[in-house]
Each structure stands twice: as structure tokens, then as C-alpha cells.
Amino acid sequence: MLPAAANKPFSHFKHFLHPPSLAFYATVISSMDSPPRFLQPTLSSSAARSPPRLSDIGDGSITLQEWQRWGPVSPIPSKVLEVIDELKLLEKNVDTQMSFGGSGGKLKGDFRTHEEKKHRATYLALDDPESKIHFYAARQIACRLLGSRGYLCQKCWLPLEEDCMCSLLKPCTLWPGIRFWIYMHPKDFLRQNNTGKLLWQIFGPHSATLCIFGISEHEEIMWNAFKSAGKSKVWCLYPNKNSVTTSVQEAFGQESSANQDITPNLTNADEALNFLLIDGTWSNSAAMFRRLKEQSQSVWGEDLPCISLATGVSTMHKLRPQPSWDRTCTAAAAAGLLFELQELIGFSCFGLEKQGEALEDAVSLLLDALTTRRLRMGRSITRKTRHAITN
Ligand SMILES: [Zn+2]
């Protein structure tokens, strides 16, 4: 059953009727990979020097600047540094150079065999689930950082030389009454087809902040912000039928906005509404949501407040044969939320529609870049994809 708000005529309905970027999203993003490549700067090779654009890296360690250029606003997570040190030590011990290939900083070759044996043993030796999650996340992030260095653009996460789309992106100021949190699965970090990254590329990292699942420094920053904001200012956007969700209209509509607490006070930055977006594949999202619920219980003794999109989800159901959170990409969901808020009294004069459109434009640019890349690499796009593009 659709919430009552779904029946209301929305002026931005065009966004859902003509979403060239969304209709073929899942088709275009699949199987993006690239040939193996070798990590240039390593500790074990004294002759190896960082390429010019990474000259500040020095001996191959990750600096705070390098880390933050990828998107996070946090210090470098300590577990990530530990894993990088372990990888460098292993490289020295087995006298095999680290090499990476494919998308997402996957280790390749002989080094991979050694590393797999080692990380499995480390993982098994950890006896509590929390440590296992931290190790898993840190290893994913460490490999992605090293494997993408000098290869991906640090801003748009696309191959630097060929596909960087940064010059085309148009940043936009997000109304300060809203702050997005992109709760990203480690496997989505530095993934070329991830759309969560578009949020901070467009709105800036303090209006749209990255929080990586299982990275304790990130989760701590996010939950501290939630605690100081208070439960009434925190909402998770998650279209799970099994969870108790509220529509945007129900949460922020006229009746609710009669309550002074709901409409943010712009004179105080702490008054912003915090919207949490789960940025992972469908299968990973369930575990991520479970973790958020547990954290909410431990902080507030209550479930995490959830909202769902009325227009976005219902219309997207019609557009896609197998709708899922995965295909309703994160950036499009955030845009949908801004469009729905724009319709409500109390939110209509903050330019939210323009901000949502800026995000949608960015999704289109990303999909264009990914499609161009695919064609250049000699991969055909499916008939279904071509159909969607010409529409
Ligand atoms: Zn770029």
C-alpha cells in the first residue's frame, strides 16, 4: 500500500519519468574492470619512486592529505595504517611485489596467494565479532587505497588519465538545515560506479560526510554527531518493507512542522537534520542496517528512525523489473528526498529542488563517463542499455 502522499501531484515528477541515468543504472555499472597493474611506490624497492603527482607520499606511507583527498574528513583510521604496515612487511618478507588489478584494488599474482593465507589466519585468530568487522573493513580500505593510488582520480574515483569527470561537475551549496551521512560499505570505497561519492563532490564533505561501515573512527564521529543532534534530528533513508518507516510527508509535513522542533533553525548549525544513506549493494545493506539498529539501541535504547520515499520508490518500481536499493542508487535516493522535502510547507524556500537537480546531473555525468569507458574498452552495451540511453 502506498502512503497517502504518493497520490499528491508532484511538480518534480519529471525527474522520475525521464531518468536516463536511473533506468539503466544497474546494467551499465556491472563488470567494470581493468587489466592488472603494478603498484609503483613500494618500500621493498629502493629504486621505486612515487610518480610526480604523488610526490608528497614519500616512502609509500599514506599521509593525512592523501587520505582526505579521497573524500573522508577523518584522521587516517589506525587499523588501516596497521594493515598497510603489515602488507609492506609481508612484501619484504616474501620478496614479492604487491600488484593490483580489476576494480576495487584487488590483489593479484603471487603476493595475493601469500596475503590471503596471512589475512585468513589473522581473521580466524580474532575472537570477537567486532574485531572481525574492524579488521575486514580496514583490510578492504587499505587494499583499495594502495591499489588505486596514482590510478584513480582522488575526487571522482575514475581512472585519472582517461575518465576523470571532475571538470564537468558543478558543485552546489546544500541548504545548511540538512546534513547527509553516506554510510558506505568498505567494498564500495573507491569503486568507480559508486554514486554516494557524488554527494560530497557536489555538496562538499561537511554537508555530505562519508562514514565507512566498520571503521571505528568514522562510526564514532557519526554517532557523536547524532547524539548531539538528538534522535528527533536523525533519519535513515532505507526502503525496507520489513522495517518501520515513515514517509517524508509524515515526518516533515504540515502537521509535523507545526512542532517547532522539526523545522531546523538555520542560525544554529547543530540544528540540522541528519539524513543517513546506506550506500552498499542490496546484500551488504542488510548487515549495515542491522549494525545501525544495534548502535541506535545502544545510544538511545530505541530503533533507528527510518523514512522512505513515496514518489521515488513507487515510480522506480514501475521502471525496473527488479527494483532494489542497489539499483535505486544512493545519489538518486538523496535527490528524491530533496524533491519530496521541497514540496512541504516549511521547506519550500531553501532551493532544495535545484540542489536535487545538481545531484541528478552528477549521476548522469557519472553514467556517461562509465558508458564511454565501456565503449572505449571495446565492451558492447546491451540492447536494453542502448534503449534506455536513446530514451
Ligand atoms: Zn576526477
Automatic annotation (TrEMBL):
Its EC number is 2.5.1.25. The keyword Transferase applies. One of its GO terms (molecular function) is tRNA-uridine aminocarboxypropyltransferase activity. It catalyses: a uridine in tRNA + S-adenosyl-L-methionine = a 3-[(3S)-3-amino-3-carboxypropyl]uridine in tRNA + S-methyl-5'-thioadenosine + H(+). Residues 149-379 form the DTW domain. Signal peptide: none annotated. GO terms for biological process: tRNA processing. Keywords: S-adenosyl-L-methionine, Transferase, tRNA processing. InterPro entries: DTW, DTWD2/TAPT. SMART domains: DTW. The keyword Glycoprotein does not apply. It is an enzyme of class 2 (transferase). It comes from the Eukaryota. This is tRNA-uridine aminocarboxypropyltransferase. It comes from Linum trigynum.
